[in-house]
Amino acid sequence: MRISGPCRLKRTPSDEADAVILTFNHRWEQMLLEKKLDIVFRKQGPSGFTPKLIYAYVTAPTSAILCCAPIVAYDEMPVAKAVTLADRGCIDVSELKTYSGVNGKLIVMELGAILVAKSPITYEFLSKHYNYWPSSTFIPLSKSGVAILDELGGFSARLKRTKHEE
Known about the structure:
Distance between the termini: 43 Å
Mean pLDDT: 90
Low-confidence stretches: 161-166
Largest sheet: 7 strands, mixed
Number of domains: 1
Number of strands: 7
């Protein structure tokens, strides 16, 4: 049974975090789990804040948040410059150009160490308990949403350790 109302993980004016859930097509699952992605490209990003942390939601058939990663650099750049980083994003230059479309610019996020969830945080669970519905782009998170995902994925202690190593 779905909870009515907005997603309970989502950022609100009274509860703002610098984190987002990014949706990835299932074809990126192995690259995320094998920690091969250094760069993530997006056509759009949040306005009003710069995210410092992503949670990766992988679409069907997986339908789960599988990992998280700090964002060590976040920039909007011309496609001509972004394609020079294509190999670090595990994407072919021509595919990245096609993906960018007529926009002319891409959001480029350089990731820190990817942390794989102790167990997948499934859509079924997130939907039932937090009224979660995956976005085709991203969902800005609340501090309480971050705390929930960190607990569910077992990220908390590992994220703290990663921050201290920097």
